[in-house]
Write a structure and sequence with these properties.
CATH class of one domain: Alpha Beta
Helix content: 25-40%
CATH superfamily of one domain: NADP-dependent oxidoreductase domain
Radius of gyration: 19 Å
Distance between the termini: 17 Å
Number of strands: 10
CATH topology of one domain: TIM Barrel
Strand order of the largest sheet: 3-4-5-6-7-8-9-10
Largest sheet: 8 strands, parallel, barrel
CATH architecture of one domain: Alpha-Beta Barrel
Number of helices: 8
C-alpha cells in the first residue's frame, strides 16, 4: 500500500485515514488475538478509522467488547465510530432513535468499548416513527455531555439527510458530518443523488463494503467454483440484489465481479486496492470501510 493519506470528514475538523476497518466480523469470525493483530497491522500502515456498531458480533455487542479490550493503551490513536438503532433488547425500548433508547444505547456502547467518548456516533438506519427533532436533541445532549464528538448517519436516502441538516440548523444543534452507504464498482446507486448531495452540502462519505462482501476480491470467477469461504456466501449482495430473482441477480453480480477482476489483472495490480480506490475517488472525504 502507498503512504496513507488523511483528510477532514465532511465539513468538520475530524481527520480520518483514507481507508477504514469495518469491525463486523469481530467476535464472529475474529477472536481477541485476531482483533489485536488487525489493530497492529492498521497502525503499521496508518489506518486510524475503526467502524463498529452495537449490533455487530455474536452475541450482539461482542464486537464492541473485543475492540474495547484490544484498544487498551492506544484508544486515542484511532478514530472510533459506532452506531445505534438496531434492536439490542426485547420489548418496546430495545431499538430506535428515541431519546430514551439513544442515550441508553450510547452509554452501553461506552461500557463495552471501555472508553469515555465516541469520536463519531451514527444512527444505523432512519427511524420513521420518532420525531427527528427528538433524535437530534438527544445527539446534542450526548455531544454536550462529552460522550460523543461528532454525529452522522448510515443507510439514509439523500432527502432524509437533507431534512436532518435543515432541522439541525433550525434547532441550532450539531449537524451530521457524514453519511455511510454501500458503494463499490458494482453498487453505484449512490452516484445518482447521495454523492452529489454530499458534495453540495459538505457531508462526508463513508463507504461500507467497497469490495462488495468479497465479490471484488478476485476470488469469484465465471469459470471457477464458488469459494467456500467468503462473506458473500452469508448474505445477499448488499445494495444490488433483486430479491425477487436472487439467483439471476447473484449470477449477474458474479459475472460483473469476474470481469472487474480480469480487467484489473491486465493492469498488473490487485482488485482490492483498485476497488477501494474507485470507491474513495469521489469529492468530499470518502473513506472505504473494508469488511
Amino acid at each position: 500500500m502507498s503512504e496513507m493519506s488523511y483528510g477532514p470528514l465532511g465539513d468538520s475538523g475530524l481527520m480520518v485515514s483514507a481507508v477504514g476497518i469495518g469491525c463486523n466480523a469481530f467476535s464472529r469470525r475474529v477472536d481477541l488475538d485476531g482483533v489485536r493483530g488487525i489493530l497492529d497491522a492498521a497502525q503499521d500502515v496508518g489506518v486510524t478509522l475503526l467502524d463498529n456498531a452495537d449490533i455487530y458480533g455474536d452475541p450482539p455487542g461482542g464486537s464492541e467488547e473485543l475492540l474495547g479490550e484490544a484498544l487498551k493503551g492506544r484508544r486515542d490513536e484511532f478514530v472510533l465510530v459506532t452506531k445505534a438503532y438496531q434492536r439490542m433488547l426485547p420489548g418496546p425500548f430495545g431499538t430506535g432513535l428515541s431519546r430514551k433508547y439513544l442515550i441508553s444505547a450510547c452509554e452501553a456502547s461506552l461500557r463495552r468499548l471501555q472508553t469515555d467518548y465516541i469520536d463519531l456516533y451514527l444512527c444505523h438506519e432512519p427511524d420513521m416513527i420518532v420525531p427527528l427533532e427528538e433524535t437530534l436533541r438527544a445527539y446534542d445532549d450526548l455531544v454536550r455531555a462529552g460522550k460523543v464528538r461528532y454525529i452522522g448517519c448510515s443507510n439514509h436516502a439523500a432527502w432524509q439527510v437533507m431534512k436532518a441538516l435543515g432541522t439541525s440548523d433550525r434547532l441550532n444543534v450539531p449537524r451530521y458530518i457524514c453519511q455511510q452507504v454501500n458503494y463499490s464498482l458494482v453498487a453505484r446507486d449512490a452516484e445518482h443523488d447521495i454523492v452529489p448531495f454530499g458534495v453540495d452540502q459538505k457531508v462526508g462519505l463513508m463507504v461500507w463494503s467497497p469490495l462488495q462482501a468479497g465479490l471484488l476480491t478476485g476470488k469469484f470467477r465465471r469459470d471457477t467454483p464458488r469459494p467456500d469461504v467468503a462473506r458473500i456466501n452469508e448474505l445477499g449482495v448488499p445494495g444490488t440484489v433483486d430479491f425477487e430473482s436472487r439467483a439471476i441477480a447473484c449470477c449477474r453480480e458474479v459475472v460483473m465481479g469476474s470481469e472487474v477482476a480480469e480487467i484489473i489483472s491486465r493492469t498488473s495490480t490487485s482488485t482490492s486496492p483498485s476497488s477501494s480506490a474507485a470507491a474513495s475517488a469521489s469529492p468530499r472525504r470518502a473513506t472505504p470501510v473494508r469488511r
